[in-house]
Amino acid sequence: MSPDRAVLERAIERGEREGGSVEFKERLQRDVHLSDGRRESLAAQLRHRVLSGDGEATYVVGVTDEGGLAGIPPAQFSESMDVLSLLAEEAGAHIEDVQTWGVDPSNADSAANRSPPGDAGGEGGRGDGTHGGTRGDAVGQDATSGLVGVATIREGGILDVDDSHIVVGTAGHVDHGKSTLVGSLVTGQADDGDGGTRGYLDVQPHEVERGLSADLSYAVYGFDDDGPVRMDNPHRKSDRARIVEESDRLVSFVDTVGHEPWLRTTIRGLVGQKLDYGLLTVAADDGPTKTTREHLGVLLATELPTIVAITKADVVSEDRLREVEREIERMLREADRSPLRIDRHGVDAAVEEIGETVVPIVTTSAVRMEGVDVLDELFERLPKTAGADGEFRMYVDRTYNVTGVGAVASGTIMSGEVEAGDELLIGPMPDGGFREVEARSIEMHYHRVDHAEAGRIVGIALKGIPESEVERGMVLIPRESEPTAVREFEAEVMVLNHPTRIDDGYEPVVHLETVSEAAAFYPEGGTLLPGDKGRATVRFKFRPYLVEEGQRFVFREGQSKGVGTVTDVHPAE
Ligand code: GDP
Ligand code: MG
């Protein structure tokens, strides 16, 4: 898959204009462009470009001022990205994404340099801000090949996910008030009941996708000593930078299942990222729907402590409200959870008891700004839950080949930490074996770092393996681990939605961490009905992966979808 050349063509076509957001650079050099004087003026120029683009600028690197495709060697390209990221930092911005294309100076239309293998499903190759752009240790590149790249620069710093930053995944039936509630939380402003507040947050689907993969969030607010720190206008991206700066604690929201096809986003949002809490909205007029139940199933299956927010309390009578509360309580009990109504038991009880068995319920109206204070208090006090302890583990999400450097694997660190120079294993290979590799270098948001820990999205340059042998779904673990590749495992599964029933040999795609692979299901007793929980043996069709007891997964085939938990593993034969 070659990166979309149209991105490059569009950027070049828009051209460099006075007062525009596009800037052409042939190359940026440390000793030239970071020198006193130059540095300040280039940072000011970058700032100006970002402001002109309403918070987003495009830097096309490897082109002449007129937009001719010059192409520069990979080492120079890397250095240019390094310099650009420093300039961005100085200008209060960051590099969000870079795409590169290879150009042959004698024929400006040659092969693409960047190809994320295994990234089926067409995310348009938008990145997570970690790929490519590996530092200046590229050596021996082909003298005739050059790179042209388009860097997207965004206002504001990188959102760090640390102990004082909780990430909340929102879910719920469409139009049940997710965007509105989040909009009211982050702005403190009431909704008009006609989509007024959600307008702050409704962005193009591709932006949502990008938001998810780039820096996790589409909305953020925070708390300092005096209480909530909110946005004045989420459209202004500088507002977000201010929130990040002023707050002692940040809360960001990730839309997990609101967009169709929900599964894709679910996987990115729930399985691929580390979320701390789920927030499920249920509109008081409609009550829980089939979608509500499905979403609840996914949130609970991924062991996310969840809060249910009843929305639109202003549009129903007291009687109807009681009825919806009862419906929600019933829905939770059917899912083996104990409802805890915050209006009866208080926020203290909710903070203490939320977790594996208890699901707090809060009643809200974005129009009357009811319940917003309760959610504020919850989000100010709830602890971070996403665990980060244990051995280093990273499932490979994407791979890149950087000329002169070799294989770079990127993904989110699930647990533990990694240091440059660490000796690791990668695998399993199709035959079930693991390969010894070394973490040559680690990058985070285009900055080279010495070490990185759980929750970070990183690119790790690997010594000891060609990129062609690294695949999405493989795992990086410490050298001393004794992993066993798994071809077949036992699971407890729940069918969320299937037209008929699941019989022996049903073959959905299983999504587990970054693994997306066809597998055959053999339900205990031969059959599983929709809504049923049951046991099944699951066998990957083509090759083994590293799978462990307790891991959650989602499966899907056509209209059918379901969730599962690994209960036992059989080693590869
Ligand atoms: P989403 O699809 O779940 O994100 O739902 P939206 O946030 O887009 O809300 C759908 C519609 O419900 C919008 O027109 C909102 O204005 C309206 N809405 C959301 N919350 C409330 C509320 O608390 N009260 C009233 N009256 N309307 C609301
Ligand atoms: Mg919405």
User: What's the end-to-end separation, in Å?
Assistant: 33 Å
Portion in helices = 10-25%
Q: What is the CATH domain class of the largest domain?
A: Alpha Beta
Number of β-strand runs: 30
Mean pLDDT: 80
CATH architecture annotation of the largest domain: 3-Layer(aba) Sandwich
Q: Low-confidence parts lasting 5 or more residues at pLDDT below 50?
A: 107-144, 203-217, 258-273
Bound molecules: guanosine-5'-diphosphate, magnesium ion
CATH topology of the largest domain: Rossmann fold
Quickly give the structural class: alpha+beta
Question: How much is the radius of gyration in Å?
Answer: 24 Å
Walk across the major sheet and give the strand order: 7-6-8-5-9-10-12-11
Please name the fourth-level CATH homologous superfamily of the largest domain.
Answer: P-loop containing nucleotide triphosphate hydrolases
Shape: globular
Query: Tally the helices: what do you get?
Result: 12
Strand content: 25-35%
* Biggest sheet features: 8 strands, mixed
User: What is the domain total for the residues?
Assistant: 4
Oligomer description: single chain
